[in-house]
Task: structure prediction
Amino acid sequence: MTIEELLAKHAKNFIAEKDAPNYKPGLDGIQYNKNGCIYVVNGHVLLRIVGIMGREKTEIRHYKTGKVLDVKPWAFEKFFGDEFTGSFTINPIELKKYIPSIRAAYAIEKFGILRLKSDGVSIQAANIDNESFFLNLSDKFESDPYTIRSITLDLNYLADILEFFSDAEVDEVWISIPNGFKPILFKALNYEVLLMPCRRV
Result:
């Protein structure tokens, strides 16, 4: 898919509509930066497409109508400066067949646990009715000794991200794990996605 086709299909998954609880003005738009970067964000997930083509000015356009929104652009660059202490890779095209299963698991339990071990990475979920879900994402995880070993994620957002990279037709996605309660970075070619972990109460 071209970048325009990817945005047309996937931007709706990474924006916040006006009736969303986390909505702020501009979160229903796509931000086109003067430096060529494109951003889409909903408060939990941040998509960046790096340096495609420079523009005369930075502006935010409604994701559906294309109308320029009268809001101040967001300073997104600061969110991509974190250090990461662990990483692994996945093939999103191979995982595409599991996306319906991840969405079905979301109906069982909204949150999944990303388990990080030296011999592999998996997603697990279970509810009080003993319904469960398990998916192996990678057979190897490289990290320093202090990397957090389990992270709670929203399964629907994970499915959205995997589907985006699958449609982008990249062979490999590099997933970097931060130390502490910070976003996880998914990266391939000029595409980057930050996903916030979830706090369970």
About this structure: Residues 84-178 form a domain with the DNA Polymerase III; Chain A, domain 2 fold (CATH 3.10.150.10). Helices lie at 3-14, 92-95, 99-108, 155-167. The chain has a mean pLDDT of 87.
